[in-house]
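Take a sample.
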Amino acid sequence: MSRINRLSVERIEEASARIDPVFLNTPQYINEPLSSLFGVNLVLKIETLNPIRSFKGRGADWLVSQVDSDTSLICASAGNFGQAMAFSCREKNIKLTVYASVKANPLKIERMKSLGAKVILHGDDFDAAKLEASRVAKNQGVRFIEDSLDIETVEGAGTIGLELLQFPQPIDVLLVPLGNGAMINGISCVYKKNSPQTKIIAVQAEGASAMIESWRSGTLVFHDTVNTIADGIAVRIPVPQALEDMRGLVDDAILVKEESIIAAMKLIHLYCGIVVEPSGAVGIASLLEQGEKFKGSRVGTIICGSNLTEEQMKLWIS
């Protein structure tokens, strides 16, 4: 299926009218201290002030709104998508099983369980858990929900783009965290139609670079392992459809180092008063590493998740 047929702004607008308002119209503003630090006008979009503390509620709620009650679903998650699915499934009395890695963030695991999901731990990373979830779903005849492949997850995330378009001044560059691709593809779909001059840049951790390597090379690049603290974007097996979606939507890509991610988390905490998980800090990390190329521009990024354990906060932020 081609990108043009798969994604549409009209569907994203429809999603915006249907998604639970608790996930919508999140704060977006210029942060003056960070703007001064980097020599840009920095627009932050804060996606952490909701019941699951991440942007994933948008796509999950849009998807679940179209599923019949009293049914069953299976998905895989590093934690945030699973929380989002659990939150929305609970509202509709839908039975949800989430597969996650045995190394997944324990805070996220407990939160998924508290929201009513059955959580099964399998494999050393997210992709191993996802493969097992897909296998079990097929064997049991249960629908398997795959973030970034199921179009509703992309459309829901795209509502972030609709809101950013309402910012009083046009944004020159958007630095968007890249995991499986739902957020960047949804936002880019909106921007390429309504603000094509805005440059869309994907940001990923060096230790989990499969999506960017695949996009750059035009071939599927898999890795045997990932090595990053940014668990929410730690993808080693790309979703082929997400890469297809990225064609013509993404203008450039940046890989950032672990030390830059940690430094960015500390800066966000210091200058914004916000606790952010590593995946949500990579946009600021890219400014730390390559800020010179953006001097004088109006740059936007999405602070897309804040699920950290107490130990992680002490280790990376304190």
Remarks:
- Strands lie at 28-30, 41-46, 72-76, 95-100, 118-121, 143-145, 173-177, 199-205, 252-256, 298-303.
- The longest helix spans residues 126-140.
